[in-house]
């Protein structure tokens, strides 16, 4: 689910539907803008995510983890992605929780 969940009228209902059709052990990948991105310090509400009126819900790493777990998935990996930093810095910064996008990999239980 690449940049979809923030457009859903009910992200919880969306994940319930995904859970219903996936087989046990199947993986899900979710990407979405990060409401807690460091860009909020310099761009405020003009940054990506806030400025798009089609975005009905914005998530932080914690809120997305909560939503995924509530819908009976386990979180395998979660990072917030920083671009266009060199690979070395990306590996460090991606775990800070303040990157522009949240990338989550989960598995149905």
Give a written overview of the molecule:
The model has no long low-confidence stretch (mean pLDDT 85). A three-stranded antiparallel beta sheet has the order 1-3-2, with helices on one face. The chain has 109 residues and is an alpha+beta fold. It has one domain (5-108): Vaccinia Virus protein VP39 (Rossmann fold, 3-Layer(aba) Sandwich). The protein has helices at residues 11-21, 40-43, 61-70, 87-93, and strands at residues 27-33, 73-81, 101-108.
Strand content: 15-25%
CATH-derived architecture:
3-Layer(aba) Sandwich
CATH superfamily: Vaccinia Virus protein VP39
Following the backbone from N to C, one meets helices and strands in this order, namely: HEHHEHE
CATH class, anyone? Alpha Beta
How many whole angstroms does the radius of gyration measure?
14 Å
Low-confidence stretches: none
Globally, the shape reads globular
> Mean pLDDT, as a whole number?
85
Distance between the termini: 18 Å
Going across the major beta sheet, what is the strand order? 1-3-2
Estimate percent helicity.
25-40%
> What is the tally of beta strands?
3
Going by helix content, strand content and strand pairing, the class is alpha+beta
Look up the CATH topology. Answer: Rossmann fold
Count of helical stretches:
4
Overall domain count: 1
Profile the largest sheet. 3 strands, antiparallel
Quick gist of this model?
It contains four helices and three strands; from the N terminus they run αβααβαβ. The protein has helices at residues 11-21, 40-43, 61-70, 87-93; strands at 27-33, 73-81, 101-108.
């Amino acid at each position: 689910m690449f940049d979809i969940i923030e457009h859903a009228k009910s992200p919880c209902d969306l994940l319930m539907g995904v859970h219903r059709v996936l087989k046990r052990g199947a993986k899900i990948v979710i990407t979405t803008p990060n409401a807690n991105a460091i860009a909020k310090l310099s761009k405020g509400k003009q940054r990506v995510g806030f400025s798009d009126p089609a975005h009905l819900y914005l998530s932080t790493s914690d809120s997305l983890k909560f939503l995924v777990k509530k819908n009976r998935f386990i979180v395998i990996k979660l990072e917030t992605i920083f671009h266009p930093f060199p690979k070395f810095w990306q590996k460090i910064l991606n775990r800070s929780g303040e990157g522009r996008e949240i990338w989550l990999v989960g598995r149905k239980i």
